């Protein structure tokens, strides 16, 4: 079927309502939702998990499963109502006219089929073109998505590609038939920051090249700022504000949008002097939504008898470009009023050294032919001569992308792995070569961990209270069962969970609440050191602020040393005192947060900073997009580990970067960098992030 020409909006969603039907009740997932996407326009759909943004996308694809139904309104694609089309017509449109890119690239690829074949299927099936032309087009698209050695890529199987490469292939597949509308559902959450920056850049360029309209679903406001022209903010199934990027970011007119921005660590936020403001309360469940405004119970401007009196419709904001809000009071609120400062704290001074690492190395031996065990062995150098110290009450952030060795280092510290060489001293006692089963109770309770995914760390068949009491028993805390129960209730108070949660099962808790239980358990034995491995990356923005704040507060009270592993530099900048940047097992830069976030940088730190999306229109960033993927630790490049991707390499004479590992150099007090660049070149480095003057 030929693609029909149409000059109106590509996508018109009008007063759409979608419900899911269970045996007990109808659960409204999306209500009264309207959005229009013009040709060549990129529309961002932003909101926290459970707000209905993916449901809207599935509605557009007409893929709501057995239980989902559109119960009101319409979705028109190029002027035609999708719900009136036959299955045949829908099949023709999906994949050729409307393409969708999902969050997890591997879920969209067939593991048993070569990449080239999967790409060629699209035009062969949808347009009936021949093999030769299909191959040419596959080759062109793979070149477009900037993959190295396109011919080899087409001959590869999905498992032979890195996550970033897989996601590019999925994007290539979606673009094969030059669709009019591309739906991207959180396409970069599984990727590293620098890879994410390259993929985002790619999506923008290809959108321009092919004139594709986009619906970009994300919970990351910074990403939406960088990729979209307009956005729509959703809360609990409804659109609450929509407009151009500039209008919504700089002249927001809905209390939820305002509250979201207050809970993200933008430049200028500081854990002591300008703490983040978390949104009070919790997201309402679909069948427990309040009367009137859904955001009412959590809103600073709520007025009883008015905001909860009846349904609230979207209202236009005068003078702006198609800017609308679902708030009755938006003309009465003083949007420029200064934000009420959260509780300010004195900066705590770090105490004595609690943890010292000296030339720690961790190598793994792997059979060269791992599948059949034959052949010689290879050594994977996961950690290469790590040295640092961490003090009482200090937050040390460990930053780097996947494969840099940060989790290996955490495992060695926890005793889940033992060090190959070097030593780890905890309160001057060596623990690097003592596996966890041989550590005494005190050491185990002193070094605790909060994991990335709160869903995997709790026992689903044990109540919350029992799980914390179990930890107290292991750590030998309390004389009697009653003592331990009392301490467990105090720990629930500490992480700001109601005491009645002790009787709840993990499945009855939200993600943020589960993470709090994980934190309570880590602090059960008065831990000296807590390793927090990406503790907020699985949580929603508004919950992130509350959990980070909680960690800081417990740290102040208990004088804990916090090792905060993360790839999100905005959060690192907000809460850490010192930062250690890792790449391929090496520490490439270390210093206080101010030193690491201001030039001179290590070239890798510079690229990391440039890659972080910042949700602030007044921020200007230098654009550094890294070529290529992170090399494998199985065969790292010779010389400097970063030389294959470094844009400063040409400044160093004599091919030094390619032959010698750089020495560690001290720049200022406590600021060290592993790099061959000469002092005068380092001195010329410009800041990557500039905030425009007001």
Task: Please provide a written account of the structure.
The chain has 694 residues and is an alpha/beta fold. It folds into 3 domains: 11-228, Rossmann fold (3-Layer(aba) Sandwich); 353-581, P-loop containing nucleotide triphosphate hydrolases (Rossmann fold), CATH 3.40.50.300; 598-691, no CATH class. 29% of the residues lie in helices and 23% in strands. It has an 8-stranded mixed β-sheet with strand order 6-7-8-3-9-10-12-11, sandwiched between helices. An 8-stranded mixed β-sheet has the order 18-19-20-15-21-22-25-24, with helices on both faces. Strands 2-1-4-5 form a 4-stranded antiparallel β-sheet, covered by helices on one side. α7 links the parallel β7 and β8 (213-218). The chain is globular and about 75 Å long.
**Low-confidence regions:** none
Major beta sheet summary = 8 strands, mixed
Class of the largest domain in CATH? Alpha Beta
Number of self-contained structural domains: 3
The overall pLDDT average reads 88
Count all strands and give the number. 26
Judging from the principal axes of the Cα atoms, what is the shape? Answer: globular
Provide the spatial order of strands within the biggest beta sheet: 6-7-8-3-9-10-12-11
CATH architecture of the largest domain: 3-Layer(aba) Sandwich
What structural class do you assign from the helix and strand content? alpha/beta
Q: Tell me what portion of residues adopts beta-strand conformation.
A: 15-25%
Q: How big is the Rg?
A: 27 Å
Distance between the termini: 54 Å
Helix content: 25-40%
Would you tell me which CATH topology of the largest domain applies?
Answer: Rossmann fold
Helical segment count: 21
């Amino acid at each position: 079927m030929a693609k029909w020409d149409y000059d109106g909006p590509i996508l018109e969603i009008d007063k759409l309502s979608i419900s899911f039907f269970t045996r007990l009740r109808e659960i409204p997932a999306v209500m009264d939702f309207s959005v229009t996407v013009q040709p060549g326009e990129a529309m961002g759909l932003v909101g926290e998990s459970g707000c209905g943004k993916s449901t809207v996308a599935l509605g557009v694809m007409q893929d709501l499963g057995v239980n989902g139904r559109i119960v009101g309104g319409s979705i028109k694609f190029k002027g035609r109502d999708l719900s009136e089309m036959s299955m045949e017509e829908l099949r023709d449109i999906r994949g050729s006219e409307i393409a969708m890119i999902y969050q997890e690239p591997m879920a969209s690829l067939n593991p048993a089929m070569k990449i080239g074949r999967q790409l060629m299927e699209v035009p062969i099936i949808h347009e009936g073109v021949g093999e030769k032309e299909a191959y040419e087009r596959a080759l062109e698209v793979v070149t477009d998505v900037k993959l190295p050695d396109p011919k080899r890529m087409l001959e590869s199987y999905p498992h032979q590609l890195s996550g970033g490469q897989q996601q590019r292939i999925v994007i290539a597949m979606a673009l094969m038939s030059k669709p009019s509308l591309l739906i991207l559902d959180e396409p970069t959450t599984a990727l590293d920051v620098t890879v994410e920056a390259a993929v985002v850049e790619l999506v923008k360029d290809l959108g321009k090249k092919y004139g594709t309209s986009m619906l970009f679903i994300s919970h990351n406001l910074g990403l939406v700022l960088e990729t979209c022209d307009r956005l729509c903010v959703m809360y609990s199934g409804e659109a609450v504000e929509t407009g151009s990027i500039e209008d919504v970011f700089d002249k927001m007119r809905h209390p939820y949008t305002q509250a979201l921005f207050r809970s993200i660590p933008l430049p200028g936020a500081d854990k002591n002097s300008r703490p983040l403001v978390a949104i009070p309360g919790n997201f309402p469940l679909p069948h427990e939504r309040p009367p009137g405004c859904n955001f009412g119970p959590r809103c600073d401007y709520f007025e009883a008898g008015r905001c909860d009196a009846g349904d609230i419709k979207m209202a236009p904001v005068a003078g702006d470009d198609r800017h609308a809000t679902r708030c009755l009071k938006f003309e009465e609120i003083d949007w420029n009023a200064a934000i009420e400062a959260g509780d300010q704290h004195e900066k705590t001074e770090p105490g004595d050294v609690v943890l010292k690492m000296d030339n720690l190395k961790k190598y793994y031996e792997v059979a060269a032919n791992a599948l059949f065990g034959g052949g010689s062995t290879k050594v994977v150098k996961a950690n290469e001569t790590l040295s640092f110290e961490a003090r009482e009450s200090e937050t040390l952030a460990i930053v780097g992308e996947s494969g840099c060795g940060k989790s290996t280092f955490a495992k060695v510290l926890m005793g889940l792995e033992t060090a190959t060489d070097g030593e780890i001293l905890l309160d001057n006692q060596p623990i690097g070569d003592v596996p966890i089963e041989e550590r005494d109770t005190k050491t185990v309770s002193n070094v605790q961990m909060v994991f990335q995914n709160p869903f995997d760390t709790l026992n689903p068949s044990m109540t919350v209270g029992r799980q914390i009491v179990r930890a107290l028993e292991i750590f030998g805390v309390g004389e009697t069962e009653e003592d331990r129960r009392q301490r467990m209730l105090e720990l629930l108070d500490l992480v700001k969970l109601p005491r009645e949660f002790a009787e709840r099962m993990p499945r009855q808790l939200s993600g943020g609440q589960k993470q709090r239980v994980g934190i309570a358990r880590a602090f059960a034995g008065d831990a000296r050191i807590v390793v927090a491995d990406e503790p907020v990356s699985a949580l929603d923005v508004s919950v992130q602020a509350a959990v980070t704040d909680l960690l800081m507060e417990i740290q102040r009270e208990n004088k804990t040393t916090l090792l905060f592993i993360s790839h999100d530099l905005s959060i690192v900048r907000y809460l850490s005192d010192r930062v250690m940047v890792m790449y391929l097992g090496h520490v490439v830069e270390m210093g206080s947060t101010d030193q690491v976030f201001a030039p001179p940088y290590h070239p890798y730190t510079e690229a990391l900073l440039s890659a972080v999306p910042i949700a602030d229109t007044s921020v200007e960033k230098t654009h550094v997009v890294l070529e290529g993927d992170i090399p494998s630790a199985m065969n790292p490049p010779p010389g400097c580990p970063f030389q294959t991707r470094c844009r400063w390499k040409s400044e160093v004479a004599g091919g030094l970067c390619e032959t010698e590992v750089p020495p560690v150099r001290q720049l200022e007090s406590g600021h060290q960098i592993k790099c061959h660049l000469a002092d005068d070149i380092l001195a010329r480095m410009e800041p990557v992030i500039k905030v425009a003057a007001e």
